[in-house]
Design a protein that fits this description.
This protein has 19 helices and 23 strands. The protein has 521 residues and is an alpha+beta fold. It has three domains: 224 residues, Rossmann fold (3-Layer(aba) Sandwich); 91 residues, 2-Layer Sandwich (Uridine Diphospho-n-acetylenolpyruvylglucosamine Reductase, domain 3); 158 residues, Phenylalanyl-tRNA Synthetase, Chain B, domain 3. It has a six-stranded mixed beta sheet with strand order 3-2-1-4-6-5, sandwiched between helices. β18 and β19 form a beta hairpin. The radius of gyration is 33 Å and the shape is elongated. The termini are far apart.
Length: 521
Amino acid sequence: MLKLISDSVKAVEKYNMLSPGDSVLISVSGGPDSVFLIYFFNLIKSKYNLKLYAFHLDHSTRSGDSTRDAGFVEDLCSKLNIKLFSEKINVLKWCLERKLNFQEGARLLRKSLLEKYCVENSIKKIAVAHNADDNLETFVMNLMRGAGLRGLGGIKPVNGKTIRPLILSFKKDIADFLNSNNISYCIDRTNLENKYFRNKIRNNLIPYLENEFGNGFKGNILNTIENLRLNSEYIENKVLKIIKEIQKKQGADIKDVYDKGFIKISVSYIKNLDGCLKTALIFKLMELVKGDAKDIISANVRGILKFCYYGGENKKISLPGGIFFIKEGEFIYIYDSSKINLSDLFKNNQLNVKPENLNKVFAAIDEDEIAALLKTNEGKEVDLKTLNKNPQLNTVHEIIKNINESGLKLQIKVFKAEEIDKKFIMHSGNNEAYMDINNIKFPVIVRSWHEGDKFTPLGMNKEKKLQDFFIDLRVPFYLRSSVPVFCDSEKIIWVGNLRINDRVKFEDKTRILLYLKLIED
């Protein structure tokens, strides 16, 4: 029993968990591990001159058992003269509303509440009751999930302000200590159910291994976990140094990545790293953006690294936890979709279309404007419906229009087909469009592209999604909303600066051409 106390003290000293005069918020569920933890702190508080607090979350579950546990914790803290902060929340409902599984949601909620009380009361440390068996279980779970080096490093003894004094102690020794000293604790029946992945490891796999290979296997694996963790921390420190240097060159601060919800890095910073550092870098980037990378596995990272090079296709990959990876030219972006929208991530330089403007019309060409350009030699206006029947058209005039929300102007002319050499049309610039005016259903509007837009690119005989068209032409994500899309009353007729719709192309039978040209203001 004295060994249990000495192991806990050893953990505190080995990992520098406490400093004299620290204030500590102890997370107490009422189970054996957290009960021993609060007794342990009560034993060492004079040695370190500690100011102790406790926190308990009543999950409002287990048919009233959770409320019983809350009462037990309240009595325990009163007995030890430790101030208790407590919350009663319907955690199952809270998790369902956020589409989280119960165990993960409860963990996130507890963590946020512990942080809240620390901030409100200027408490320096948070103590949680993870022990050696928890560490072993986490290692096995991560091993089976295909985690990388970091995941196989198990539970960190110290992570920020969170400390784990029981990380070297086993559950059995804790239970024996409490029972021998007639110290009461609560039993959570759900820990005996094999509904959750961890419980299956705890209740089935670990006992089997212990029965087959003896208790010594735990110590051997824990030593391996320690070695892996030290290697992981060494690599992580190198990666952090790399990221800080990159951010500094970009005039950014690594501390701001989480709040902004994204990070941008040139592939040049990745290509020369060895494989181990590349993997660790991607893991760390995702953790900085999201706050953790617990759901990311090695397969996710391998999938990303396939696109971290110059050239090749642009790529967007959806990752667990609402994280997205984008490879765009020489840059990669990692962003958290819960914090930032894709449309906000890329700020373009031409048509700066804000999300609220996506459905707005930026310019329009109506029939009256075209009719004004189509006059007979006698100065009479021509009905668009009779264009092909009038041989005396005068098409010298032009219109210049502004495209709102952009730095572009639109030049509009009308030509007789006989006035234009086909070779001249074939060698026109991407910012020019020659279209058969009789195949256009006026009015024509100019807007940004919409999700689901389709058109038939010149030279093709079937429709294509505009998004796929952009991908084929390697139009960067951040420029797509800047492409002016010209639509008549039926469909898209021109994807500005790129391609016209095959429906409005110049043919042998074409008599009158509508000419559009985009000009930088």
